[in-house]
Predict the structure.
Amino acid sequence: MLAGLGASYGTAAVYATRYLYPARPRAKAWMYVARVADIAPGGSLNYTTPGGEKVAIARQAQSGTVDDFVALSSTCPHLGCQVHWESQNERFFCPCHNGTFDKSGKGTGGPPGDAGQSLPRYPLKSEGGLLYIEVPTESLEVADASPPRDGHDPCLGPHLGDGARV
Amino acid sequence: MSLEFKRGVIAFLSALFLVSLIFVQWREVTRREAESGRSKAHISVPASSKACVDCHTQSTPGLVAHWEGSKHAERGVGCLECHQAQKGEIDGFDHYGLHIATVVTPNDCARCHAEIAGEFGGSHHAKAANILNSLDNLLAEVVEGHRGPIDPHSPTPGRAFTHANGMASVNTGCQQCHGSKVGLVSSDGGMLTVDDFKPGPDGVPTNLDAVAKVVKDQNGKPKFHSSTWPNTGIGRINLDGSLGSCSACHSRHDFSPRRARQPENCGKCHLGPDHPQKEIYEESKHGVAFRDLHAEMNLDGDSWVLGKDYTAAPTCASCHMSGNIRNGGRITHDPGERISWTNRPPVSLAMDTDLEHRVVTETDPEKRRALVADTWEAKRTRMQEVCSVCHSAEYVNNFYKQYDDFVVLFNEKFAKPGQKIMKALLDNGLRTKAEFDEEVEWTWYLLWHHEGRRARHGASMMAPDYAHWHGMFEVAERFYMELLPQVREMCAHAKEDGMAAEADNVLAVVDEILARPEHQWYERDVNELKAKRAAEQNAEKK
Amino acid sequence: MFSLQAWIRERVPVGPEQLRELTNEPVPNHLKKWWWCLGGTPAYLFVVQIVTGILLAFYYKPAPQTAYESVRYITEEASFGWFIRGLHKWAATLMVAAVVLHQMRVYFTGAYRKPRELNWLVGMCLLLLTLVVGFTGYSLVYEQLSYWGATVGANITDSVPVVGVYMKQLLLGGEVYNDNTLSRFFILHAAVLPVTMAALIALHVTLIRLQGVTEFHFKDEDPKKAKFFNFFPEHLLTELSIGLVLMILLSVLATVLPAEMGPKADPLTTPEVIKPEWFFYVAFRWLKLFTGTLAVLSMGLVVFLMYAWPFIDAQIRKWRPNSEASVWIGIAGALAIIALTVWEASVAH
């Protein structure tokens, strides 16, 4: 009897736990970045994910394959804060625990430096001469920080009326 | 009820509860399975286009919704990737911090789809706007419309028109299929096109005088000439010098392959009295099967190779453009690559093409061999690869024999004779050089351009009714009952007007044609009757 | 093991003996028959509602912009979300049914009579609270019927004389359904009302313990046999069985007739057919029969009479000791309720 009760109510409890556990992993997608030919060896570009995260993509070789490229995440491998580039110090800096990284993303100081951690890299692939990056497509909505725009309000709709002339 | 019994009852009920929970688990699993295939692809707006999408979701929500259904949206290709303009491009303008252009040309698409753009550029499709100076153009510009403004001859109550565009029929009729020459409004009131801007290979204009004349609105956006834009004609002549419009078939802004694979897509232009390809297809077994088995066509498939991804029916795209298992799945954006007869001109020509993909008309065999880059046989082989996915070699070869016989019959019995008679009329001064000012010119035009094409297209795509009743039957009626009587009447009038010698020349041509075995039936009995009557009259006189 | 028991015993000076004493209420023999155990059923369902309700609250977002989407997420995306929501919905329905059946049993067996009048009052409060919890819960889904149900409900309060207008504003947090309304309903449904109910249920059970369960005697009983049996373990096992039967029933209902999503609330369009949950059909029909204030006041009077019934009944019995009036009135009332419910259920408007 006790076993039966334990098994049935236990199963119900397992279902409840499964319900509380996230239903699916974070959504990711392969996003178009640029044409491979657009980035010269030694060059780099800044890509912004749909969620707003900044990714530095650099080309380090000339073979023409995807292995030429690295895409550095700005998420610190220590405890997940966002690093930013300090141009005067030529390093990425993490404000949470003073972690620092060099240009290539290698940890140089603070907890990541001590643990020998580097900034994580995003997966890249190239198809038909086009470079794609796999990035998360969801993030918490951030308030729109873009400044107010000048000129006419584009959201008011197309300006009909001046096309009616013959 | 003993305690033991109660315990047993509880154990039994627990088991039953467990069973019901297992049922719940099963439902959860089937639900997940059902959803996994159905869930819509996740759309993520690339950061560079976020501002565009935010505003245009309000100003043009339908446009954004279409884009959201596109493969582009799934793969992070946003507004800017296609609409960005380089500095100096004539139609580029600043739009909230971005330099963009309204019209996306094949050059823009080629930034990612270079190979496809190349194939398309070589196709007859890309040159579709080269109908200027053709008969059809003359019809729309002069016969239907007027090369210049039309002044109203009486008022239109409620509307105050000062003048109307005489080329309206060209703009909305011809050019929406063939393509316009995109024009900007000039400060002198006229229109500036690629001919004025003379763009270099990079698409940037070289004639700065013309650039200075472009009229812009208060936001710095150049104004398009309303007669040339909007336009998605397939051979559109763009401001950057490129030819064509990819959105003619790949409708913006979802660029749906699914739609491009279906006959309705081609049917925007390939239908009607002069080239009813879509109706012909619908009459054919191919079209009938497509309509029935639409759901089995795998139209949404990422890959769409005939024989691998679908076999239910072929569409226009299947035979003329898409990949099949026989050609390794190779897609072409030049639909002419698999066509072995061109049935467009009055007399069908074998599709031997030169390096520029033009049909070679040279008759001298030696010179011809030197010019031909791609033979009609090579083209036919490519089409036969498609056929052979479903049909045996004998079946395919015999079909092509039937088709060839039909084309040659039309060419020899009606087209070449018609051409010869029309030339004789012109050479002998019985008709003027101006087209469509004499009845016989309309007759001849209807014969080859409408009925003759219908017949040949019907034969090429297995539509018996178009081959015969809408085709050869009407060709024959037009030839015997209109063309020949009209020519004879013209000759009779010419004789009255003192042009007896010229009229006899033309009649000699007609007689030579009618003496051919295939035409002898036409006046044999009449002639016999006439001869009999003449003999009787002679006898009476005697 | 032993040392652990001793360790606990030192700090919690209650032994198994006392616990047994505390729980081992003598249970009258008639409760060996399960159909006399309806009082435990709503209590069990109340626990189910607390558990599933807490689970649902993990994902539910009580704001007009997010509510519907979060319920959709629970129903369509979260693992087993549809099942938890189905359990919650069906347990609510069964709870209303169980409370009503329990009350009818108490009524027809006269178990509300002296000295148990106060417990009848507590029970009446629990009945009304169950209905109000059902109403507020239904409104949280933010589908069309939730929205318009809440609107209509709030406007019914409006027709109460003098205080109605203030009550409505208090309920909606404004003159009409607005941004603040949904969070109000949520707090009422998920915190205020359940806590009140838990306290009242505790009071209800305490009063039963203090006064003992009403005994019934049947003619075919052996007078020499013991009149009581032990709560533990005998009666507990009965309640466990009932609990399991309820769980099976709920699982099957939640799977076969799952809670679905109606169209999202549209404050500008009232649906053609608008109905509350079935347990409000009586009131809904009543409101259509008598308009406005009259309907509300007459309904208030009926509720007042239900509250006061133990005292009215006492007066009647003082006057005519052998009167069977309560039974006939009860039958008439039950028939009236059934008739009004069936009437409402069978017509569109």
